[in-house]
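Possible race condition, two jobs.
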Amino acid sequence: MFRSQQIARLLLEKEELDDRLLNADHSEWYFIDRVLSKFQVCYTFLTSLLSMVLTKTSINGVLGRGGMHLFSLSQLQEFLDVSVEWVSHDKKLLDLGAGDGQITAIMAQLYRTVSVTEASKIMEWRLKQRGFKVVPMNMWHLSGTYHLVSALNLLDRHYNPSLLLTQLHSVTLRSESLLLLTVVLP
């Protein structure tokens, strides 16, 4: 097929798709917008009430909000250079400051034993719901050896970042493990 015929065919297909889009029923789009708007109003109202007695992190834990996406399983496998021979049955993961466990759940697909720490008691509850072993925050560096230690977006929130780095160094050196460390940049 000649180049001009290909261009003409593509232009015709685009015209047909544009017509279908213009003639389509958009009521579902607007319905979803209205529902989401109402949900956001409820969330804002509940947040303002709960903020009198709970932290923002705990409020998000109660309401099931505040999750984030950092990487997919395939991105993590590529980043960690996971080979096709990878066997997870003997692998251990420690995720510090695991939050609601959304990112931990992605990492957990590569590890059999998953331990977590979290400052918020409500988030600890969420993590236990997901089946993760919660380690006391002041004991994690004494809790064993791991294949991967993860501290995602924790360094800037820690009360003593220097101590955290020292403990991370000690645990990863003792375990001969990898350290996955991320820092939030403004």
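Job #2 (started ~2 s after job #1):
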Amino acid sequence: MNISRNLMLWVIILVCVVALFNLFQGASPRNNARELAFSEFRASVERNEVQEVTIQGSNILGQLKSGSEFRTYAPDDPSLVPDLLSNGVVVKAAPQNSNEFSIWSVLISWFPMLLIVGVWIFFMR
């Protein structure tokens, strides 16, 4: 009986550690990118200050020639990509983030409830 309690406790601790690791591991590497107004972004493109951009849906992540990173939100502008290419900007495209089913997202969202139930079962024995 005591062995099963210890095993249950270690399983709960392991699940907590894995959930916390995945929660902090999913952080975007471009969190330090500064927010840029779209008009300021277009002006930077025309001044040839933009080195490369990654277009992901309506979000644009990029790097200036000075090395600093930025992000902006682009309205539906059909002339954007031709303007970027004509100004020598390297354009990359990425698929839009979708809310796909992920076992990790389910585990993280249900984790507090499962933890409460697990602790309750642990103390009821």
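The domain at 32-94 is CATH 3.30.720.210 (Signal recognition particle alu RNA binding heterodimer, srp9/1).
Logs attached separately.
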